[in-house]
Amino acid sequence: MVPAWLWLLCVSVPQALPKAQPAELSVEVPENYGGNFPLYLSKLPLPREGAEGQIVLSGDSGKAAEGPFAMDPDSGFLLVTRALDREEQAEYQLQVTLEMQDGHVLWGPQPVLVHVKDENDQASGHQATATVEVSIIESTWVPIEPIHLAENLKVLYPHHMAQVHWSGGDVHYHLESHPPGPFEVNAEGNLYVTRELDREAQAEYLLQVRAQNSHGEDYAAPLELHVLVMDENDNVPICSPRDPAVSIPELSPPGTEVTRLSAEDADAPGSNSHIVYQLLSPEPEDGVEGRAFQVDPTSGGVTLGMLPLRAGQNILLLVLAMDLAGAEGGFSSTCEVEVAVTDINDHAPEFITSQIGPISLPEDVEPGTLVAMLTATDADLEPTFRLMDFAIERGDTEGTFGLDWEPDSGHVRLRLCKNLSYEAAPSHEVVVVVRSVVKLVGPGPGPGATATVTVLVERVMPPPKLDQESYEASVPISAPAGSFLLTIQPSDPISRTLRFSLVNDSEGWLCIEKFTGEVHTAQSLQGAQPGDTYTVLVEAQDTDEPRLSASAPLVIHFLKAPPAPALTPAPVPSQYLCTPRQDHGLIVSGPSKDPDLASGHGPYSFTLGPNPTVQRDWRLQTLNGSHAYLTLALHWVEPREHIIPVVVSHNAQMWQLLVRVIVCRCNVEGQCMRKVGRMKGMPTKLSAVGILVGTLVAIGIFLILIFTHWTMSRKKDPDQPADSVPLKATV
């Protein structure tokens, strides 16, 4: 078997035939060629004016050529695509034409006969040669077809490549190469190449062989031979330098072109420099259909895939560029493409909190007061796209509120611009909307683009005012607990209700009614001295607004105790109360014969007597200046008649009323059920029991006698049927 790089093609084409009828070309191909395919066989002399035509390769009958042959449309070379076997077919008859698309023939047909050269016809060893015999017609050189040599041929040099002959006489051969190349000729006309050839350095050489006599004179014009260096796949595809990052907007549709790769291969046009592309990374994600990028294997165009991209991503694409159309044994290089996914304004700004408040503001708050601070965010990355604009959408028809914010900030302040009025509007619901300054791409703003601020207006009321700035009262040191001193009143008692209390009553001598403002002694004034004063602070709070209050000092002057007047008991008609305690009591009135009260000079003061049991079991509450209300203090009081001492005082006079109260059990209607005594002539309990027992004993004896008599009567006449025995009874 002969290596492919050792064979040499020789073609001899007669030039005498007319141009319209090209002579048949004869081409030899070594059998079982073991080199790379496709193998360039011969370049056909196609006319230049037919460059726009189509090269058609067919068999001798005009049908499409069968077998492993093809034409390279760029170079015009006849190719064989696989190894041939002479035993299967020794020769192939082909014809080549140059035609237009409409079938018009521009050139040809050119017959080509391909001979499959037997392996035994090849020389053995490391230096096999192919011979080109140059025929001499009338002592002239006959032109021959170009010689094709594979570049980087790995053989022993000098390597025989062809042989020429000059018939007649002594001849010396002289070789010239244009440009100078590694070629030489010996005396026998054998042409040699002395080293490896590199197509990238020089693709074609023109050799001139001169036939000279011993004096160095040419016998004829030199023979010109063209040596074409055939390409070998010895160059790696080279990617273009890495460019700056390619910017792709976010949400670009699938199929958008990112870039187009253009790798170069220094090999000659053909399969050796046929480059295809394959995407290496990013690799498909697990569980995710589709890829973010796609590469056209032929054109090298990089486009977007179905997988969406996110703004801010920087992706490095690795694309493999392979020659030999990606076939095994070729070279490859990795091309890099950097892709930066740029942001677009596809996110609408939104507030962090959609509901704020309620916020309470007094109606006298000054304009310019900060009401609330709202914060909005934007998911876009580009600072320009995060610029926001705020506005009050509704809830502020009167312009009571306003907004201010920094242009590059997501914080907006809601401020008060006008005075509030509780009567005009006790509450406000201000809706603030945020929008993107730059036009939004994609869906519009969502519900988060608005925030509602609820503002409650608090009514502002003036603090309460008492009818006096300070109060004074005098009381004898002997005054009993519950003695009336004075009444604290507001300056405007109709418009508002006050709740009164005492502050700094360290001795606990005084008490004040919460709502009426009446001040009484809470206990006996033990420890007080005549002429001393006792000061407490009276505080009045608004019942509706406890934070609003007023206060005034109360000065108590202690007087010398008057002589104890004789208490004149005044009986009070007997009345009754229910036990257990029910919700009612008794009305106790002052002495009706008091001339001061009748003339309206002053009220009475009512207190219970000093008896501890009475103060424990009973409660007395002053109703007005002339009456008091007596009720049970305990839930249960022994049912019986009680005499309750009530001390009534007016100025320096004191009376003691003895109130007779009958405490009894009551029925459901609240009526008293009294205990009654035994009626005259009625038996006692013991006598009633005796009579009942005696009666029962007499009845028992009577029944025993009847039963005994009946039994004895049956024993006297045993044969008489029981049904016929008359009942006899003796009383």
TrEMBL record:
In this chain the Cadherin domain maps to 21-131, 171-239, 240-351, 353-466, 467-567
Transcription listed as a keyword: no
**Bilayer-spanning residue ranges:** 686-707
Name its GO BP terms in alphabetical order. Answer: adherens junction organization; calcium-dependent cell-cell adhesion via plasma membrane cell adhesion molecules; cell migration; cell morphogenesis; cell-cell adhesion mediated by cadherin; cell-cell junction assembly; homophilic cell adhesion via plasma membrane adhesion molecules
Which stretch is the leader sequence?
Answer: 1-18
Q: Which domain of life is it from?
A: Eukaryota
The main location class comes to membrane
Record Gene3D superfamilies? Cadherins
Q: Which UniProt keywords apply?
A: Calcium, Cell adhesion, Glycoprotein, Membrane, Repeat, Signal, Transmembrane, Transmembrane helix
Q: Which Pfam families does the record associate with it?
A: Cadherin
Q: Does the keyword Signal apply?
A: yes
Q: Which SUPFAM superfamilies match?
A: Cadherin-like (SSF49313)
Q: Which GO terms describe its molecular function?
A: beta-catenin binding; cadherin binding; calcium ion binding
Where would you find this protein in the cell? Membrane
Q: Name one GO cellular component term.
A: catenin complex
What name does this protein carry?
A: Cadherin 16
* Source organism: Pan paniscus (Pygmy chimpanzee)
Gene from which the chain derives: CDH16
